Amino acid sequence: MLKRMKVLCGGMLLLSLLLVLAPVVGSFTWQQTGGPIGGRTYSMVIDPNSPQTLYAGTFGGVYKSNDSGGSWSAINNGLTSRQVHSFTIDSTNNQTLYAGANGVFKSTNAGNSWSAVGLTTYQINSIIIAPSNNQIIYAGTGNGGVYKSIDGGNTWPYLVGNFTNNGSATITVPNPPATHTTCRFKVKGAGNVFFNVNSKNFTVTFNSSSPVSPTGVQPVATASKDVKVYPVPAKNTLHVSSTSAMTAEVYNTVGQKVWAGNVNGQVDIAIGTWAKGMYYMQLLDEDNNIVVKKFIVE
Q: Which contacts (CB < 8 Å, 24+ apart) does range 141-150 have?
C-alpha cells in the first residue's frame, strides 16, 4: 500500500513541491512537482475541511493551492507585511485564517483579503488557535513574548509571559523543612497534565539559616469559612465579605493581577468591564493564612 503526502521545501529563489510516495514500511522516494515562487517557505497549512487546499507562508507572502499543490497563486490583498513566518487556520471555520508576519493578519474569506489586527511592532514567529475555543489565539513574537487574544485576534490585551528562546530559564528553588533527594521539575499543561523537565531526581537541601518556604497557596479551613464571595456567577458587581481584616488580590486565568484591595467587613468590586471567564481571589489575613476563592464573570 502506498501513502501519499505533499510537502513544501524551502529555497532561496524558487520553492519546489515534492510528492512523497512511501510504503507503510520501507524507504521514501521523492518526485519534484513544482511550487510557489515566493522565496523561503516558513509555514504550510492544509485545510482540515478541504485537504486539497494548501496555504504556504513564504518570504514573499501567502500562497494558496486548490489542487493539492499542482498550482499556486499569491493571495496578498491587504497583507502589508510579506514575510509570513507563521500561519494557522480555524478548524471550525475554514474561511478564517491568521498569518504571522510583522504583526498578526486575519482573513475571514479564505485569504481573498487580509486585515492587520495587532502586534504590528513584533515579528510573529508562531500563532495557534486554542482547540477548545476559536476566539482564543496565542501569538509568539521574535523577542520571546507570548500574547493572548480572547476575541478572535481583534485585540491582544494579555502578555502571557516573556520566554527568551535560549534554552534556559531562571527559577527559585524553595527551602523545604527537610532535605529531599527525590525532587523533579514539572511543567503544568492543559487538562491538569504535568510534564517532566528533568529525567533524573535531584536533591534540595534544607538551609537552616533561611526560613522554610510555604508549600503553596493552601486554603485554611477556619479562615475560609469567614470569607464569602458572591454572587457566582457575577455580572456587574462582586460582593466580598470577611469577618476579619484581609488583603485581597484577583488574578485572571493567565496569572495577571486585575484587582487588589483590602477587605474588612464587605467590599463591592465593579466588574462590569472585565472579560468573561474564570477568576481567582487570593486573600491573606493577619496571621498569614491564605484563602483562595474562585468565581466566574459572565
A: 147/119, 148/254, 149/118, 150/275, 150/277
What are the chain's domains? 2-162 (2.130.10.10), 171-213 (no CATH), 221-297 (2.60.40.3080)
As a residue count, the chain comes to: 298
**Residue in the structure block whose three cell numbers are 535560549:** 166
* Chain-centroid distance, C-alpha 296: 21
Is there a contact between 128 and 88 (Cβ–Cβ < 8 Å)? Answer: yes
Which residues neighbour 73 within 8 Å (Cβ) at sequence distance 6 or greater?
63, 64, 65
Residue 143, pLDDT score? 77
Phi then psi dihedrals of residue 192, to 5 deg = 60, 35
Residue 287, Cβ density class (10 Å: 0-12 exposed, 13-18 middle, ≥19 buried) = exposed
In Å, how far are 10, 11, 30, 44, 278 from 19, measured between CA atoms?
A: 14, 16, 6, 15, 47
Q: Provide the 8-state DSSP code for 209.
A: T
Q: Give me the phi and psi of 225, to 5 degrees please.
A: -65, -20
Tell me if 83 sits within 8 A of 102, measured CB to CB.
yes
Q: How far apart, in whole angstroms, are the C-alpha atoms of residue 35 and residue 25?
A: 28
Separation of alpha carbons 119 and 285, rounded Å: 40
Dihedral-angle region of residue 56 (phi above 0 means left; psi in -120 to 50 means alpha; beta otherwise): beta
CB neighbour class for 133 (10 Å; exposed up to 12, middle 13-18, buried from 19)? exposed
Place of cell 513564504: 58
Give per-residue pLDDT as tens, 146-183: 888 889 998 888 887 666 655 556 566 777 778 878 77
Please tell me the distance from the alpha carbon of residue 181 to that of residue 186, in angstroms, as a whole number. Answer: 16
What is the pLDDT at residue 115?
Answer: 93
